[in-house]
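Hi R.,

Here are the chain sequences for the assembly we discussed:
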Amino acid sequence: MESALAELLKTALAEIPTAADEAALEELRLKYLGKKGSLTAVSAGMRDVPPDRKAAVGAALNETRIGITAALETRKAEQIAAKDAKDAEGIDLTLPGRPVSPGALHPLTQVLDRAVGILRRMGFALATGPEVETEWHCFDALNTPGDHPARHESDTFYFDSGHLLRTHTSSVQVRTMETQAPPLRIIAPGSAFRRDEIDATHLSAFTQLEGLYVAENVSLAQLKGTLEAFFRALFGESTEVRFRPHFFPFTEPSYEVDVKLSPKGQEPRWVEILGCGMVDPAVFQAICDARGDEVYHPDKVTGFAFGMGLERLAMIQWGIPDIRHLIENDVRFLGQFV
Amino acid sequence: MKVSFNWLADHLDLSAHSTAQLSDLLTFAGIEVEGITERGVRSDFLIVGQVISFVPHPNADRLRLCQVDDGSGTPRQIVCGAKNFAEGDKVPVALPGAVLPGGFQIKESQLRGSLSQGMMCAGREIGFSDDADGLMLLPADAPVGTPIHQYLEVDTMLEVEVTPNRPDLLSHLGMARELAALAKLPMKSLGDHTDSSIKQQAASAGEIRLDDTAGCPFYTARRIRGVKVAPSPAWLVRKLESVGLRPISNIVDITNYVLMEMGQPLHAFDLSKLQGGIVVRSASEGETFLALDGRECLLTTADLVIADQQQAVALAGVMGGALSGVTDTTTDILLEAAWFQPSRVRHTSRRLAMMSDSSYRFERGVDPQQTAGASELAVRLILELAGGTAEDVLLTAGAPPVLTREVTLDLLRAQRLLGTPVSEAEATGILTRLNLKPVGSLTFAIPGYRQDLQRPVDLIEEIARVYGIANIPATTDGQFVPASAADSFYDFKMALRQRLVGQGLYEAQTIKLISTAQLEDALGTTPQLLPALPLRNPLSDDHTTMRPSLLPGLLATAARNIRMGTSSLRFFETGTVFARTPDGKAIEKDALTMLLSGPVSPAAWNTPSPRVADASELRAILDALCPGVSVKLKPVPNARLLIAAQIIVNGKPVGNCGQIAPARVRALDGRHPMFAAEIDTALLLKAMTREVKFDEIPRFPSITRDIALEVPADLANGKLEDFFATRKEPLLTGAGLFDVFADPTGQKLAADKKSLAYTLTYRDPAKTLSTAEVDTAHAKVVAELLKALPVTVR
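And here is the predicted structure of the full complex:
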């Protein structure tokens, strides 16, 4: 009987791999393993096997069944694989896809959003103010002398009403302090305007990001720490930052801040990015006078303020050589910042 | 301002500091060093040589083969291209080993086959002059073989940016005082020239009359007779040249020297050309004045002039007159030293666009206390260099104003503002080094030249500046800050931007100032466009008006991209638009505008001719912009559009959209229909703000019924959508258009009709509907429809 089993296995293993399709394979399964199949027929001889041989013959019978079943499964897997391969025939994954217009945010928006994101994580809320401003909000309240050159018609745009296009977003500081009591921790992104001819480095309208923190005991040390943390978040943990004393009418002491950067294709160098300082007491006094209360009294609160130009930041970050690219909106330019 | 190290060395010994150290010291004290230039070369390999003889180079017509005495006793052969020298001339010779400005290294070499053992130099090659034509010829007494830097003065010049609050630094004396304080160096005993010993005598009204004491509270004059006007000596020429001034004559040069030394502008008049005494007065309206630079100025009463009895002879503090100045034939002079009101000088200088070293200093603020001292220094130098006799009194009118006062330091406040415990000794040490005189407990007298120190906070700034921010710790503090309305609006606008970018649009940012012609392109967010807001003082015709709409900028953007060969135009912009109220006040709004034209995607192998943007593309992008809320377009004629609609979001009008007139598109060279929408962003935020609540997901299947309707050709789909949306039938949950058909030939459908086909969806949230239930509900809806609108079922 064992020889009959061996012969059966041999025949089955030769025949199963030739099954052409699913139906032929099922036919073979029935032929060997079905109720009327060959293995069933052979196993009927178990009755005649002497008792001492039953265990050995039983094992041989089982092995034959396992062998045939495995062969059937292997062939089945082969057939599925072949069918799938046929379905995928001719598909070239390296072909270009269906074309889509990618679209992109303007690079200035991207720079602004990064800077705003960092400062919001540091606990600054956004604030806004009008772009058409009064001379008081833009200059007087910010301790700018009456005959300061910035007020001149040759430097600043005016309207018939006597109002002007704000020359900096610092006017938002004034607007916010007028209506909100301290403590105050705000950033104000927005447009500012100077009466400049447009050329490779100048726009008559540009984008600034202003910051102001007013509370009891705000210190220069905090200004330094805040801006250092900001620039490290923006340009990387190892970014070097330096503060140079400077002069602005609305802060004292005042600083310009340089960051060591490598503009495209250049050696690292100090790039002036930002102006800042401790809010001048005269500004707080002007706010008190306008509010008619003392919550911003210069003896009660101190504050720091900073402002930076975002076009410059974008130009440095991406190595853009001409500021006019930022207002021309050529898709070949915009498409580079997706 | 240009600062010469050699000049500074008159006042303090800087030899222990390198140029880089001093540059940093100044920069980190708020005096930014913008450039450093060297005069000459500090190299022992650059020596005085003498040409012994020369012959033409055997192989080059333009070159000479020279024998040069370098002091070693052995003549040196040098090939030279210059022609401006003769045998016996003394010239600078760079020996092998010398490094010239720009890193140029001198080596022994073969030039066209002849040995050249060094280089004879032009003035520019060795940083002594700008002269690059020919060799620099040295005086006959130049000692052969001596390094040039021992014979000619070598100097380092700094270009520094002085902030407007520190006019005291616009002089070498001031800069030296500052460096002395910063570097803790003693000032040399040369002094500050302010200790005037000359006897001052009040001038008679015939000598000096101050008619405008607000403009000029203090005027002094010294008369010197018998001077000899001549070129200045070398030391003076050298000093002036080192700070970029051109030497003129000894008298003028001395006034310029004092200006650069003390920051005190002076003016020397030719006494013989003055008709009678000096009058300081406001100009009369329409008075004319011929300035030193040849310009004829028309004056107004706001201008302050120095006049004689006949006419204005100088614009006070700005510029002298062409007719009263010192010339080569002048023998008697009147030397003016005065203090003028900064705002008056600034006004005149700016109005006439006439900037001078004098006006620059006066308008920022000169120390009134140094007037007499400066005059005395100038007189001493005039007598020394030009001879003559000075009167033994200084004539004065008025008195020098006192512009500084005592200021008390609040140490605790300083410590809190700086965020670091600066000690009292440290603070007072810094202030006294800056020449502030302690007059009481933490109270200081401020020198006349520090008019910027008026308030306690000004003292804190000085401490911060000198103490150095590098020594101040960096700390941060976080605190909870509630989101503002501006925060919400920012986030909303950013989400809108991201949605449009997701639809393949590019964000543009255009200029907020547009031309008057561009106003024609404005769209606006309301049915009527409000009047635009023009500038009073535009810079050019291209930028005369605040944009009332973002569309003009986007059309300009489209035009540019069309010019550059782009046909797929998908742009949007968000930003402020402006208008004017009837009484001229500005209105500002935030708008979002999009512009669509041409292929919606690039062409490719599988999309050789992409779909071109049409009205449905505009509509699709509006839907994508406002997900989850109802968006309706209500046709409303708009003068600026070919076809137009109001955009209604959640029942509220938020803007306008439509197709731009084809004639306008053709003018931009556009080849495809162009669509635009302009939305009031704040209104959109309001319309889209809603509370989202969970809706149970349907558990039972829906059943649909299709219906094709024959409707008049001009009946808008919107009418039918409105009809379906307002049905009270509880089982009807939606209606979707699936076909539009029209036949202009009238064969399949009358030409004045069109067919609209909808799929209506029915569902009961509580059970599976039976066919009969759906049929009943559908029949009811159709019956109502036929009653409500002029339609028939096809």
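Residues 243 and 257 of chain A are 5 Å apart (CA to CA). The mean pLDDT of chain A is 92.

Let me know if anything looks off.

Best,
T.
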